[in-house]
Design brief:
This protein is mainly α. The chain has two domains: 1-30; 33-84, no CATH class. It contains four helices and no strands. It starts with a helix and ends in a 6-residue tail after the last helix. 8% of the residues are buried.
């Protein structure tokens, strides 16, 4: 009796492990839009030719922050600027 229950439990566990492995493979195959946006925004921030007063970088940071918020970024604008490399950590 116990052996049969154990065998059924092992079969369910094996099926669950297979499901988890399939989901992990699917997640790895998909691109994370927020991570891609962070990568592109950091590159753009480094390559921008800024004005004397820094307004161009500030405007780009605001625009990319708005997009990041739409993609699920939960931090503040200060957090975003730190992530972009705009300001040193305080």
């Amino acid at each position: 009796m116990r052996a049969a229950r154990l065998e059924k439990a092992l079969k369910r566990l094996t099926a669950a492990v297979r499901d988890v492995e399939c989901e992990l493979a699917a997640m790895k195959a998909e691109r994370d839009p927020l991570a891609s946006h962070i990568f592109v925004s950091r590159r753009d921030y480094r390559n921008v030719n800024d004005t004397k007063d820094g307004k161009r970088c500030e405007m780009n940071a605001h625009l990319s922050f708005n997009t990041a918020c739409e993609l699920g970024f939960r931090g503040s604008l200060d957090d975003w600027e730190r992530l972009m490399g705009a300001v040193a950590k305080r």
